[in-house]
Design goal:
mainly alpha; RNA_pol_sigma70_r4_t2; single chain; 9 helices; 2 domains; Rna Polymerase Sigma Factor, Chain: A; Arc Repressor Mutant, subunit A
């Protein structure tokens, strides 16, 4: 994945926090708290459970940061800790959640001829995503919204890269089928 300014800044914050810079730690938490909560919400389906899992994860992240060998791996590493916290705290029973408001607020606007048409298209995609199983929805969101690569998603979700590719493929097929059915 290409490294943009935001990723480089996150790497700098992680390296500084690892070295004991409290201000860098606070900025890192402020930048990553919403992302980690969205990820936990996608996995648990419940905003309260998500906040609890992320709060517990921050303790583990703080303790383990000094042992993180490569700060470039911070995003996938932190997301994996949250994933494990969600699995540990709530078992493997993840229920589907009703809304994707956090995803909708997160999206970046693509160039469109008409904003109204774009809004309808985005609403249709979000509705289709809402119907995906939690595992597929999490992989798809990490890829398209958090801009992680397959290897990083594999680390974040604690699954093999082949499983990530399969989940992405199935998620895209389901969304495509839903959207093609909606336009007919």
């Amino acid at each position: 994945m290409p490294r943009d300014a935001a990723r480089i800044y996150d790497e700098y914050l992680a390296a500084s926090a690892r070295a004991g810079d409290r201000a860098a730690w606070e900025r890192l938490v402020a930048r990553w708290q919403p992302r980690l909560e969205r990820h936990a919400w996608r996995l648990t389906g419940d905003p309260d459970r998500a906040r609890d899992a992320v709060q517990d994860a921050w303790i583990e992240i703080m303790r383990g940061l000094r042992g993180l060998d490569d700060v470039v791996a911070f995003p996938a590493w932190a997301l994996r800790i949250v994933t494990r916290r969600c699995q540990r705290g709530f078992g493997h029973a993840r229920r589907e959640r009703e809304g994707l408001a956090a995803l909708a607020a997160d999206r970046t606007d693509a160039t469109a001829v008409d904003e109204g048409e774009q809004s309808v298209a985005v609403a249709q995609v979000l509705a289709a995503m809402r119907e995906l199983p939690a595992a597929q929805r999490a992989a798809l969101a990490l890829f398209h919204l958090e801009h992680l690569g397959v290897a990083e998603i594999a680390i974040a979700l604690d699954i093999p890269p082949g499983t990530v590719k399969t989940r992405l493929m199935h998620a895209r097929q389901r969304i495509r089928a839903r959207l093609e059915g909606a336009t007919k």
